[in-house]
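Thought: the user wants the 3D structure for the chain below. I'll pass the sequence to the structure tool as-is, report back what it returns, then summarize two notable features.
Action: structure_tool
Action Input:
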Amino acid sequence: MGPVTAISIYLVTWWVVLFTILPIGVTSHADAGVDPGDGGDPGAPVEPNLKRKFITTTIASTVIWAIFMLCLQFRLIPLPNVPMI
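Observation:
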């Protein structure tokens, strides 16, 4: 497996983990009883904590990616031989 494929797998893993972590611990304006203001969405989060979620996403996706790559390296997950066109 080449480096471009490994980086692509990491990026896909990172985005999947990000969308999994984003709703954790979110309180909307409607749940908190806060007025969202003119034109604000009552379902928008009061404090999204994006920096913490990006750091958590990076750590979690790095661990998941490393486990996946080790499984591929030690052939615990066999991949079929696909001919290149």
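Final Answer: Structure generated. Helices lie at 3-21, 29-32, 50-73. The first helix runs from residue 3 to 21.
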